[in-house]
């Protein structure tokens, strides 16, 4: 496989997206909400968690693939991908936890992990562009 880290990360993101999709569908059935969020706070939460993953995963996966195609340091790349995936899973958990009256701490950690991983990959791509392609 040419891009094994990217492939695994994409597969895991896809499974998280499917999981959240079924959470949204289940909540729509329970609340009989065919469109939008209605007035149900859990509907807001599951839709938000699904949308947040769908918003962050594409750019992370594109950056990951670009770095992997540039033969970036494999262990570092794997670490950034792992950080991103753990942060995304933590975000889903944190959304459920917060809705249940728990702390926002898990969501905050997820945002920090996601941001660090995406910024790290973006800066790495820029570094490679400046040092290798100029």
Overview of the structural elements:
There is one protein chain. The protein has a single domain, classed as Four Helix Bundle (Hemerythrin (Met), subunit A) (Up-down Bundle). The chain is built from four helices and no strands. Helix 1 (4-31) runs antiparallel to helix 2 (41-69), helix 2 runs antiparallel to helix 3 and helix 2 (41-69) packs parallel to helix 4. It is elongated, with a radius of gyration of 17 Å. It has 134 residues and is mainly alpha-helical.
What is the CATH class name?
Mainly Alpha
Q: What distance lies between the first and last C-alpha atoms, to the nearest angstrom?
A: 29 Å
- Give the helices and strands as they follow along the chain: HHHH
Q: Into which percentage range does the β-strand content fall?
A: under 5%
Structural category: mainly alpha
Contiguous runs where pLDDT drops below 50 for at least 5 residues: none
Q: What general form does the structure show?
A: elongated
Based on the coordinates given, report the CATH architecture: Up-down Bundle
**Largest sheet entry:** none
Radius of gyration: 17 Å
**How would you name the CATH homologous superfamily?**
Membrane associated eicosanoid/glutathione metabolism-like domain
CATH fold node name: Four Helix Bundle (Hemerythrin (Met), subunit A)
Q: Mean pLDDT score, rounded?
A: 92
Helix content: over 70%
Could you tell me the number of beta strands? 0
Domains (count)? 1
Number of H/I helices: 4
């Amino acid at each position: 496989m040419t891009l094994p880290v990217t492939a695994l990360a994409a597969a895991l993101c896809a499974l998280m997206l499917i999981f959240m999709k079924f959470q949204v569908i289940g909540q729509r059935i329970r609340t009989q909400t065919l469109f939008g969020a209605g007035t149900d706070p859990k509907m807001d939460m599951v839709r938000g968690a699904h949308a947040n993953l769908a918003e962050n995963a594409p750019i992370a996966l594109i950056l990951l693939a670009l770095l992997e195609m540039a033969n970036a340091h494999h262990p570092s790349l794997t670490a950034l991908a792992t950080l991103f995936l753990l942060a995304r899973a933590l975000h889903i958990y944190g959304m459920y936890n917060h809705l249940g009256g728990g702390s926002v701490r898990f969501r905050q950690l997820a945002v920090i992990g996601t941001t660090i991983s995406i910024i790290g990959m973006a800066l790495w791509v820029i570094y490679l562009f400046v040092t290798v392609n100029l």
